Amino acid sequence: MRRELRPADRPEGSAPPGNLPLELNLFVGRADELTGLTRALEADRLVTVTGAGGVGKSRFAARAAALAAGHLGCDAVRRVDLAAVREPNLVEYALAAALELTDHTSRPQREVLLDHLGQRQLLLVIDGFEHLVDACASLVTELLGAAPDLRILAVGRRPLSVEGERIFPLAPLDTADAADLFADRAAALLPGFALDDGNRTDVVEVCKRLDCLPLAVELAAGRLRALSPADLLGRLDDRFRLLTGGARGALPRHQTLRTAIGWSHELCTAQERLLWARLSVFCGRFDLDAAEYICSGDGLHADAVLDVLSELIAQSVVIREEADFVVRYRMLDTVSAYGADWLEVSGDTARMRRRHRDWYMGLATWCELDWFSPRQVQVAAQIGAELPNLRVALEFCLTEPGETHLGQYLAGTLWFYWAGCGHLSEGRHWLERSVELDAETEDGDYARSRLKALWVLGYVAILQGDTVPALAALQECRDEADRIGDATAVAYAVHRRGCLALVTDDLPRAEELLRTALAGYRELGELNSSVLMGQVELAMAVAFQGDLASAVELCEDVRLVCEDHGERWTLAYALYVLAYAEWAKGDLVRARQLLRECLVIGDTFHDLLGTVLTIELLALVTVTEGDAGEAALLQGAAGRIWPSVGLPLFGSAHYNAPHERCASDARAILGDARFESFVAAGARLEPGEAVQRALGRDTASRPAVVPGPRTAHPAPETREPAASPTVQGGETTG
Hints:
The chain has 734 residues and is mostly helical. Helix content is 61%, strand content 5%.
């Protein structure tokens, strides 16, 4: 059997870091094509692998990228799967997510991508773009024009048709490799199965009849639990005679693939066909609970879904994946599309889409409640994993007549993910779309859904530094909430107005509004992460006015509540204020411990705002400890992060005061030239590197007072972060 090495078999360090999917079974054949694609990527910065559905483009491209990226000198390889993206205006968000790019600003997403990729040596794999070809062609052209060290490996059924594109057509496997593939997949179902003189002829003939398309071959191999190769060949021959009729202009390989899928479909039981069709409403991956709720009923009991799903997995119709001890499922795009056609013919598409919407509305509602709990990290991961399905639910609500209020509710309910997990830009996209639409009535729950979307929109815009739209949304929310007597919406609107006053340095007004909002929350019995954040913001407002003792009291109370409920995200901001108070008292060791915990939490949730504020304050602590060079370096690292957050330190004189003091003290010790040298060194750090640099210092060996100016200091280019033992109080389960 001719086999290629798995990634795990390659020498360590031969491939750069990235997010390529792990290979769960053997990669068979295509050695010559892998070599040819590597050479194509050496010669051209845009190579598009094309071929019929089922020919194995995605698997081949991922394998080729893993092998080629290190050879090409790329720092990383990243893959974005667009098969689960339905709308052209979401392509840029999907790419940003694949790049793990967090940006809190109101800049257009494309501008953020261009800025991020401009100086990086990256191999980007864009898979499944054919239904979004115009949007992808435009984006790829701009990216390649702005990023000279970027290479793109596109994967689709047709070319992008842009300048500079090299097309790499992928043919089906040769007969020998197809037979090897069949044998490997069959052996996974029937231990001990192997090609021999008794079955080789039949297996080879099956592969030939299927044009050696990998997907078709794998589907056929999945039937061996019930059929012998000879039986398989006989039934396949019958299906070809039955199912060869198709569109006159269809390519033979497309007919073959549809025939193979249709033949597999015909061999399924009635319940298996029913579940196959209903599973097509999912976008990307799904879990068993979702499948049982959405797909059960009308001929398929919920208790039977697992057994039927297991049969579809055995037949290679559904793929089972496991990561971090969580099992999820998916269907290949071609297989899902076949099921969607059957669902449409059955007239059940609209009902299933509503059930899909209902499930993900319920998931978002539950996760909003669960965000204020010890499961906060798991909630963030769950929403991130379900984002493709949540997007489909949002799109359904915002395009289906009579569903607008549900779209407003869903967009607002996800506030904790938009604000807490670095997805402000996408959140604002959905929130603005939702409030632009008029709900069917202005009374009752419909109006409350819109009010929630408005205050969340105002909150997101504040965090992006976009004060005018923020004020407009919050004012509309307040006015409408007063009109219908919605005290909850009033409290949230007042709270966010107070937050806006805080970042614009109107401290007396901020304190007044925040105290009013907190009183309203108490009267309503409202307690969650957002309410506690209001108390932290009040602490900042009084601290900036000189009342540090009251600020500490407020934040100590927040810390106790957070610890009682297992809350981590808001806790980080309370610890930030407490760290500032410890610095002011001169307890630098304790200040650093608190800031370390802030950094770990912020990094866990991809909260760039919390991260960069912490690094700024940590720089002040560091210069007070006497290490002016490291403090300047941290300021440089923060300076690189701020453009992805918004206006540095909100343009606020009060937030900026610690930064200015740190810069002044460090510059006085180092001198202008060396200070700027350290700042420049920090600016070269990626955000993740900056966090690790800040976390890696050994506080036990640092002085707690400012020494005299130094006459010598290691150059920033050669300085390595110090090793750091665990510091008590700096751990976090977040």
